[in-house]
Automatic annotation (TrEMBL), chain A:
<dbReference type="Pfam" id="PF06182">
    <property type="entry name" value="ABC2_membrane_6"/>
</dbReference>
<keyword id="KW-1133">Transmembrane helix</keyword>
<feature type="transmembrane region" description="Helical">
    <location>
        <begin position="20"/>
        <end position="40"/>
    </location>
</feature>
<dbReference type="InterPro" id="IPR010390">
    <property type="entry name" value="ABC-2_transporter-like"/>
</dbReference>
<feature type="transmembrane region" description="Helical">
    <location>
        <begin position="176"/>
        <end position="195"/>
    </location>
</feature>
<feature type="transmembrane region" description="Helical">
    <location>
        <begin position="142"/>
        <end position="164"/>
    </location>
</feature>
<protein>
    <submittedName>
        <fullName>ABC transporter permease</fullName>
    </submittedName>
</protein>
<feature type="transmembrane region" description="Helical">
    <location>
        <begin position="60"/>
        <end position="78"/>
    </location>
</feature>
<feature type="transmembrane region" description="Helical">
    <location>
        <begin position="235"/>
        <end position="256"/>
    </location>
</feature>
<keyword id="KW-0812">Transmembrane</keyword>
<keyword id="KW-0472">Membrane</keyword>
<feature type="transmembrane region" description="Helical">
    <location>
        <begin position="117"/>
        <end position="136"/>
    </location>
</feature>
Length: 265, 289
């Protein structure tokens, strides 16, 4: 299978930079400590903010740091690479390949996320669990469901970034749009503050947007806020956004490739 | 031409013609490179404005998080919103200025890796001035202006008896804070001579330090506060002087005069970072190809 090779290649590519991975883990862990203490202060003032107790809030902090790289919550995810290929015209080569453009990049992104989940995710979460009382599940099934939910979140995040990158077919400089979309992801994923802890109606609205599928839903699965029907609704919510955004990506891709004129050389 | 040769001559023999002349020469070169990059930035004016506004919005999200928190609470760790905004403003302003002036230095790892540092070594200008000014990013004014806005707002809201000494303390804090963060940037860059791929570790102390200093010290575990007071003395950027200014007790119970050590700590850190930089530069071995 084409795409499996692409994913495996992408995994190995990110695995090459070991020092950078260690440096990233260190930084994620430092930030985990800083944010954890601010959340402890916040949840001391408001003990049941957003329906979370202190262990749940702390689990949110450390899971967010663990998923930061894998789910590309702040930056990354190879989006600028695709953007640059579109800008430079190298995309023409990609379009000639006997593989679908969207699935090719999705496979590469899944390979990247798989490495970063292991390389950048395990240590911060383990350090967090050692130093703070976290609400981590004891049964394997919840962990598996969590991983499935993370994977769905990665797909939603990819689908959003892919749309942003495709905009470069029409925009001369896509960096402004990439910046705005990065900010929206940071704010509406819950990276800044858990969406459930947002004030009033903002919490309701934010939990319906696609970015909620990237971090908020997986964390809720992990800490057991979502079980039974609520769990299924959460996963369906993620899958629905994933399918809708990927479908939209295909439409835009079709329009974009009709527009492409490859200059002969 | 003649003056240029004389300048290079002075660089080679700083002991003979005076260290001050060497520093002046380095600063002049820094100014020239910065001016060149600003002119090149302003050639794409729309792009520049967009990126500066983007930087402002991106750093502003930190403060939005604080505002969201305070929509649910009245005080965090015993500090009111204007007090936290004061901590946020002073820390962010210091980091923003240090980042604007020599933040480009964090790109040194790439130059060490691909060997392009060789080019800089050949020029009759201190390498430090060249890498500090390299790709000078004027858009970093976005963070600075956002910090000034928050700081300005907090100053109007704070209930502080503004004596002349207290008024003077605020710009002094920004100055020392900029120097301290600048030293951290420099030490981090020196570290990259050995660990080129580890550039991100530096973020823990610059951006991470900033994230820490934006919140009151009462929020954090005592050991963490001790660490940023005695090991990497970031607490002197704003925590210690701000505790004094706002009339909060010091969680570590240090003697009162420690609050005024900011300038001394900043000078000491700059000297240490300078030594680390020199040591790192001497250890540089080119790529060999």
């Amino acid at each position: 299978m084409w795409y499996r090779a692409v994913a495996a290649g992408s995994f190995r590519r990110y695995a090459t930079y070991r020092t950078a991975t260690v440096a990233g883990v260190f930084t994620n862990t430092v930030f985990g400590f800083i944010v954890a203490y601010t959340y402890i202060a916040l949840w001391t003032e408001r003990p049941h903010l957003g329906g979370y107790g202190r262990p749940e809030a702390l689990t949110f902090v450390w899971t967010a740091q663990a998923l930061l790289a894998a789910s590309a919550l702040l930056y990354g995810g190879g989006i600028d690479e695709l953007q640059e290929r579109i800008r430079s015209g190298d995309i023409a080569v990609d379009l000639c390949r006997p593989a679908d453009l969207q699935l090719w990049w999705l496979a590469a992104d899944l390979g990247r996320a798989a490495f970063q989940l292991i390389g950048r995710g395990v240590v911060p979460l383990a350090v967090g669990a050692l130093c703070f009382p976290l609400a981590l599940p004891g049964d394997a099934l919840t962990w598996l469901t969590f991983l499935f939910s993370v994977a769905l979140g990665v797909v939603v995040g990819f689908a959003l970034r892919y749309l942003v990158a495709l905009a470069s077919f029409w925009l001369l400089d896509g960096s402004g749009l990439a910046l705005i979309s990065g900010l929206a992801c940071m704010f509406f994923s819950g990276m800044v503050l858990p969406l459930r802890a947002f004030p009033g109606a903002l919490a309701e609205v934010a939990q319906l947007l696609p970015w909620a599928a990237i971090l908020q839903v997986p964390v809720d699965v992990l800490i057991g806020t979502r079980t039974g029907g609520s769990l299924l609704r959460g996963l369906a919510f993620q899958a629905a956004w994933g399918v809708a955004l990927l479908a939209l990506g295909r439409l835009v891709q079709a329009a974009a490739t009709r527009k492409v004129v490859v200059q002969g050389g | 031409m003649a003056s240029g040769t004389a300048g290079a001559e002075r660089m080679r023999h700083p002991g003979r013609t005076g260290r001050a002349a060497a520093v002046a020469h380095g600063l002049r070169a820094y100014g020239l490179i910065v001016r060149m990059w600003i002119r090149s930035t302003l050639a794409y004016r729309t792009s520049f404005v967009m990126m500066a506004v983007g930087d402002l919005a991106a750093t502003g999200l930190d403060f939005v998080a604080i505002l969201l928190m305070f929509s649910q609470i009245d005080a965090l760790g015993g500090f009111s919103l204007p007090e936290v905004a004061f901590l946020y403003g002073t820390s962010s302003l210091s980091l923003g200025l240090a980042d604007l002036l020599l933040g480009s230095i964090e790109r040194i790892g790439r130059r060490v890796r691909d060997g392009t540092l060789d080019t800089l070594l050949l020029r009759p200008v201190p390498v430090f001035a060249q890498v500090a000014a390299d790709r000078f990013a004027l858009r970093r004014l976005g963070r600075v202006s956002q910090a000034v806005l928050v700081l300005g707002w907090s100053l109007t809201e704070l209930e502080v008896d503004w004596t002349a000494g207290r008024v003077l303390l605020v710009p002094l804090m920004a100055l020392c804070g900029t120097a301290i963060f600048g030293a951290v940037f420099t030490a981090g860059a020196a570290f990259q001579f050995w660990a080129q791929d580890a550039a991100e570790v530096q973020n823990s102390f610059t951006y991470g330090g900033n994230a820490l200093l934006q919140y009151p010290p009462t929020v954090f575990a005592k050991d963490l506060v001790r660490g940023v007071t005695f090991v990497i003395p970031l607490a002197f950027v704003n925590w210690l002087p701000a505790l004094r200014l706002l009339g909060h007790p010091d969680p570590l119970g240090l003697p009162g005069w420690v609050d005024f050590l900011g300038p001394a700590v900043a000078a000491l850190m700059c000297a240490g970072a300078g030594l680390a930089w020199r040591y790192g530069l001497r250890a540089y071995r080119s790529t060999g190809s």
